[in-house]
Amino acid sequence: MAQTVRKDWDTYFMDMAFMASTRSRCPRRHVGAVLVQGKKLLGTAYNGAPMGVPDCSEDGCMIVEEFENPPPGSEATGLIKKQRCIRTIHAEQNLLLFTDRIDREGSTVYVTDQPCWTCSNMLANSGVTEIVYHRAYPKDQEKVTALMRQRGIQFRQLDGYTPPPDTEVQDVSAG
């Protein structure tokens, strides 16, 4: 009889984050997040419009363009253009909205994508002590990594991870 390989905890919880992301109706990117304390799952969330409001698949994305200066010490020159949809609430934000502070103290967040700057700020004040992500978000990488270092939050990309089949949606946005 063939022996089944048991998944490690990081893979197990990241798989759950990707499964949560399949609930998203965002045409640009599906993002999922889970909150874990020890080995106990405390909450799941995904990106999307507020409850009871038409989502992007129904009413289209509400894209805004923003420009910001490159981070200090960066090789980038000139303003950095960012596009984002303001119809959706990010998975990390929904996770914080639907979990209790007491549960977040000392917990880990597994998220399919590296948190953006706004979500990182929120997570930095949430009580979590570790954030594990799969896909990088280069536009905010330097400043988010610096913030996590300053806050003493473990911040790591899950190396060698492969998402479960049929859970990844390719980003179709231009920025």
UniProtKB/TrEMBL annotation:
MF terms in GO: dCMP deaminase activity; zinc ion binding
A GO CC term attached to the entry: cytoplasm
Domain spans labelled CMP/dCMP-type deaminase: 8-155
UniProt binding sites for Zn(2+): H90, C116, C119
Cofactor(s) in the UniProt record: Zn(2+)
PROSITE patterns in UniProt: CYT_DCMP_DEAMINASES_1, CYT_DCMP_DEAMINASES_2
Tagged with keyword Hydrolase: yes
InterPro entries: APOBEC/CMP_deaminase_Zn-bd, CMP_dCMP_dom, Cytidine_deaminase-like, dCMP_deaminase, dCMP_deaminase-rel, Deoxycytidylate_deaminase_dom
Gene Ontology biological-process entries: pyrimidine nucleotide metabolic process
Keyword terms, alphabetized: Hydrolase, Metal-binding, Zinc
Active-site residues (renumbered): E92 (proton donor)
Stretches of the chain forming a coiled coil according to its record: none
Family in the record: Belongs to the cytidine and deoxycytidylate deaminase family.
Protein's UniProt name: CMP deaminase
Biological classification of the source: Bacteria, Bacillati, Bacillota, Bacilli, Bacillales
